[in-house]
Every structure is written in structure tokens, then in C-alpha cells.
Amino acid sequence: MKYMTLVGLLMSGLSGQPLHAQDYKSQIGNTRFFGESAARPATAADANVLHAVTSLTQQGGNYKNSCGEKVVPRIMDLHLDGALTHVSAVFTGSHGVCFGSAGYRVTLVDGSDRVIGGTVASGIGVLQTQHGGTYDLSFSGTASSYSVWRWNTGEHSYRHVTDVQLQ
């Protein structure tokens, strides 16, 4: 299986120092974000990953989101280094107002089919900073709103750190 490495050449100049909102603002401004259009449709081989996403229910061969709408989950494979050599970002859409103007719920599932984070968002980007050897993430929300998530090794999950407005 191919992994989409989203970090590219962002590795230069990492200091390991705590970052402030202004530092995250700069990083987010230089990060490429990927939405559901960059993800592939889920297949039967993804059954375990989809089963881990508690906001999805399966009825026959169809899936429904937490609002009961029929959806086609999409998956983006991520490689985030450290303890997370394989992560699936599962995009679950909405045809109505279920996820607001962001339009999607993005759930992160590790290689052992455990949910390790998730939020309502329109896209995901990998930041240049790392915690526990694993890259920090940012989720794009509505308009110019972004959330920053940091890996917590002890809890084996991503935790929300702060929200950043670019304008």
C-alpha cells in the first residue's frame, strides 16, 4: 500500500522549542492541506478501519454518518513517523448541516484500528513540528480557522492544542 507523505521538505530548522500561536500561524500558512478529494473511496479491505469509526454505522453495503445520512467514506493514508507508521484519515461527509460548513468529520485510525483523534474539518495538513517523534497536525475548519493537534505518546492519541485564525 502506498502512503502519502505529506511532510515533504518541511524538516529543516526544527528547534524542539514550545511554539506559540504566532509560530503555528506561520506554519499553517506554509502547509499544504488535503481534503476529501485527495482521499480514495473506502473499499471492502478497509472494513476494520471503518468499523473503528464510531460515528459511522453500516447497514448492508451502505454507511451512514452520525446524522443518519447515507455516505461514502473516503480514506487518506498517512505516514507521520514515530509510533505512527500508518494512519488512515477517514473523511465522512454530510449532505446537510451535520458537520456545519466544514462539511466533514475526519477521524484518525492507527494501524491497529484504534481511533487516535478526530474533529469536524474540511482538510488536514501535517505541520513541521513533532512531539514524541510524530508530526503535529492541523485541521482546516471554516474560512480562515485552523486547529492544531499534537501527538501525546502516553495516551497514544492526538490532542487539540490551540485554534489559529489566519486573517
TrEMBL record:
Top-level taxon in the UniProt lineage: Bacteria
Stretch forming the signal peptide: 1-21
Keywords from the named record: Signal
Protein name listed in UniProt: DUF3224 domain-containing protein
Species this chain originates from: Acetobacter fallax
